[in-house]
Amino acid sequence: MTKISELKVGELLPEVKLPPVSRLDLIKYAGASGDYNPIHTIDEEAKKAGLPGIIAHGMWTMGNLAKLFTPYYEEGFVQDYSVRFKSMVFLNDVVTLKATVKEKEDHALRFDVAAVNQDGKEVVKGEVVFSVY
Known about the structure:
The chain has a domain at 11-20 and 57-132: Roll (Thiol Ester Dehydrase, Chain A). The protein is an alpha+beta fold. A five-stranded antiparallel sheet has the order 1-3-4-5-2, with helices on one face. The protein has three helices and five strands; from the N terminus they run βαααββββ. This is MaoC-like domain-containing protein. One of its GO terms (biological process) is fatty acid biosynthetic process.
């Protein structure tokens, strides 16, 4: 595995493809986060809210994006992390996580990050600053 500090501008981290989003994933996340909004776990409530079905918590998707950096925590840490939610994630969606080096400074790399569904649609887009020890 390449060290994160050896990456150059324009290079990508290995993509992470998540398993299909399951109801159990969202129930577990609701319990862990305290976000019990029923649009995330109960079909009828999501439909009452005008949605075609339950949707994943935006923060569930954002949290999963951090998995891109897990293999590199011995080299440094995520110093800054910001995202914009662009679209909804539904049950059974397959989300792929991506990161590209945007800038490189002495002890920090700035990445463009994105979560993309199985149709190639960006659902989350953002930026991560990873500081190297």
